[in-house]
């Protein structure tokens, strides 16, 4: 017999499937194009919270502004250097996005991956223009509106409380201090270097879709400092769940609004049925990028993306083990378990750097007593 959590998950799956289908249908009806429609669908399904809590109202305009600025930077780099190779564009924009993400306040740390992904999206389409940028922004706004409206309309009685806050407590450090701490953090340098060279590594390894190796590396490192092995395991499970439904649905009935609804809603329903709620967001992203197409849906189109994303996750794991595996945040958490004067003094010294790392991850961090 299904538990209450599973019923809630299936209700969220209905909202997710409807959000995907309606967003794609409206975007295509308005003539925005397939690629903007895919962006709108991914945003529309991710904005639906499976616990039906309400996002802070400020998150909507802020997300639009941040995504728009990041995409504009990526498009500007491509247009300023039209003859440069794609790996050079990715390297430069990847580094710029990591630097911009440091400026985000702790309350917006959950948008770090939005910055990292949005910045390189214009680099995937070699014919992208400012008109396309405008269409993509319209589609993203459409996805936000439709996903939010469907969540509100399908929220069960007794649910719909504000989402719990994310990020560490207290005031943010001044911006110059945050950049100083970032540039003295080996974990940040690890992210910066891999963001610069991830696509080149994928090309060098001969992967079929190296951009997904880039996403696997960068998005995972943005989510993990220290315990990378657990993050890689979670990401691999989520990505694997996310490719199943698109692989079955799109190879059966094709890529259309009904198929998109079945793929996205089916992914959410599968995750709910298996009681794997923590993997839902990764699974939905994986399902979404399976049809955010820059090529035809051929037999190995989706599996290649899955394989390359997993290779990227593996590269993130190797870098986390071999390159500066220790962090201020992990040391701070270990010292919290010790209650002597020496550890208290070390906690005070570590707190600014640990708080900044916690802010990058959107994690809560107790201050020093």
Brief rundown of the structure:
With 369 residues, this protein is mostly helical.
Overview of this protein structure:
- With 369 residues, the protein is mainly alpha-helical.
- It is globular.
- The chain has helices at residues 4-29, 34-46, 59-80, 86-102, 112-120, 130-154, 175-183, 186-204, 210-223, 228-253, 257-273, 280-291, 301-322, 328-336, 341-361.
- The longest helix has 26 residues, at 4-29.
- The protein contains 15 helices and no strands.
- The chain has one domain.
Oligomer: single chain
Low-confidence stretches: 294-298
Shape assignment = globular
Query: Mean pLDDT across all residues, rounded?
Result: 81
DSSP helical segment count: 15
The counted number of beta strands is 0
The domain tally reads: 1
Structural class: mainly alpha
Our Rg estimate from Cα atoms comes to 20 Å
- Terminal CA distance: 47 Å
User: Hey, roughly how much beta strand do the residues contain?
Assistant: under 5%
The sequence of SSEs as H and E is HHHHHHHHHHHHHHH
Largest sheet: none
Helix content: over 70%
């Amino acid at each position: 017999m299904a538990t209450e959590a599973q019923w809630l998950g299936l209700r969220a799956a209905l909202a997710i499937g409807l959000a995907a289908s309606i967003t794609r249908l409206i975007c295509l009806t308005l003539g925005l194009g397939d690629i903007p429609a895919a962006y709108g669908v991914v945003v529309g399904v991710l904005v639906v919270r499976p616990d039906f809590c309400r996002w802070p109202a400020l998150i909507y305009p802020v997300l639009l502004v941040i995504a728009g600025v990041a995409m504009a930077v990526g498009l500007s780099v491509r247009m300023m250097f039209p003859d440069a190779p794609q790996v050079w564009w990715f390297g430069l924009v990847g580094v710029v996005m990591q630097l911009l993400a440091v400026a985000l306040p702790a309350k917006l740390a959950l948008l770090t991956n939005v910055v990292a992904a949005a910045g390189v999206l214009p680099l995937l389409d070699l014919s992208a223009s400012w008109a396309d940028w405008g269409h993509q922004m319209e589609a993203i706004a459409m996805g936000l509106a439709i996903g939010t409206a469907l969540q509100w309309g399908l929220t069960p009685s007794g649910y719909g409380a504000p989402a719990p806050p994310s990020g560490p407590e207290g005031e943010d450090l001044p911006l110059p201090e945050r950049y100083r701490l970032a540039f003295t953090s080996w974990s940040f340098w690890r992210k910066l270097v891999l963001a610069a060279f991830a696509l080149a590594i994928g090309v060098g390894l001969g992967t079929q879709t190296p951009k997904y190796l880039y996403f696997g590396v960068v998005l995972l490192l943005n989510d993990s400092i220290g315990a990378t092995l657990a993050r890689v395991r979670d990401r691999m499970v989520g990505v694997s769940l996310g490719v199943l439904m698109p692989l079955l649905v799109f190879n059966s009935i094709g890529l259309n609004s009904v198929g998109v609804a079945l793929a996205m809603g089916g992914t959410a329903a599968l995750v709910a049925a298996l009681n794997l709620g923590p993997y839902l967001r990764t699974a939905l992203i994986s399902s979404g990028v399976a049809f955010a197409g820059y090529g035809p849906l051929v037999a190995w189109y989706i599996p290649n993306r899955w394989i390359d994303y997993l290779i990227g996750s593996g590269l993130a794991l190797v870098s986390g083990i071999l390159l500066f595996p220790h962090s201020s945040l992990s040391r701070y958490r270990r010292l919290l378990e010790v209650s002597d004067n020496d550890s208290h003094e070390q906690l005070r010294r570590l707190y600014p750097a640990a708080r900044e790392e916690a802010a990058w991850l959107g994690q809560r961090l107790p201050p020093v007593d």
